[in-house]
Design brief:
metal-binding (chains A, B); DinB (chains A, B); 8% strand; 3 strands; 160 residues; homodimer; Four Helix Bundle (Hemerythrin (Met), subunit A); Damage-inducible protein DinB (chains A, B); DinB/YfiT-like (chains A, B); mainly alpha; two-stranded antiparallel sheet
Chain lengths: 160, 160
């Protein structure tokens, strides 16, 4: 019998640590692509991995900024400066710092708030952030297939 | 400033709900494959989706049984009865029930315990279960690429 059904098992800091560990692995997947294949290779009409990376960048920083600061955000997946592998990695690293900075302002009570992100996706903050992480793992798994298909060994999945 | 740094933000029940929601989506991905492609289609020498499904089945039920009951388990990904789509879906549904049943015996304190699963992977129970879920999302993302490559529209990712 579960005698502590109303208590909780994950801290805010643990959730941040897991997200950033996942982001670290995704960064290694971006790095593993040659420049050309990052922007051009795809299977069955799906997006190249650069486009998936842009989606993840467009969600993480702006989404968390809306959550923490209440800013109005749109989902902007096409920035002209995101035009090279180097630029994507730079944006990735800037987002890493931005997430850490915004996270330090998050009260635990924030995770229960319902917020409509990007003007369209309404959910609790906890569920939105869980979606951010799961969506990243989902696309990264697709990136693994792309890497295999172009003959490159992806990083070990469990080296998160 | 985070004034509640030591409190927690996720309940055991929420974690179970998220795992089962992910498992429900994975079930729809298994269902979306034609029988032949489930067992034979692959890209770049990767495993067919049936093999990934067997890995997920071999981890979830036996892993949680070891966590809850302390049973000795090996990672057994090749059972002779897992030889058809129907058999995999049946095993999937049995695992759904098994997880719910085992979960009802989990105390919250269990999630902090360090356990060496399958005789080789030592981690806290929370991190092991997080790995179970993330590993499933990772392989399911690969299954999405397979489905696209054989001309089948996968279920919506966000309909978890």
């Amino acid at each position: 019998m579960n005698t502590t059904a109303n208590s909780n098992i994950l801290s805010s800091g643990d959730l941040l640590k897991n997200w950033q560990a996942n982001r670290g692995l995704t960064r290694r997947v971006i790095e593993a692509f040659p420049e050309k294949e990052l922007f051009e290779f795809s299977i069955a009409g799906m997006r190249p991995f650069s486009e998936m990376t842009k989606e993840l960048l467009a969600i993480a920083g702006p989404g968390l900024d809306q959550i923490v600061n209440g800013s109005d955000q749109i989902l902007d997946e096409e920035r002209t400066e995101w035009n090279s592998k180097e630029a994507l990695l730079k944006a990735w690293d800037e987002t890493t710092e931005l997430i850490n900075s915004l996270w330090s302002k998050m009260e635990d009570s924030k995770f229960e708030e319902r917020i409509k992100l990007f003007g369209q996706y309404e959910n609790t903050v906890f569920d939105s952030i869980t979606y951010f992480v799961e969506n990243e793992i989902h696309h990264r798994g697709q990136g693994y297939v792309y890497l295999r298909a172009i003959g490159i060994e992806p990083p070990f999945f469990w080296e998160k």
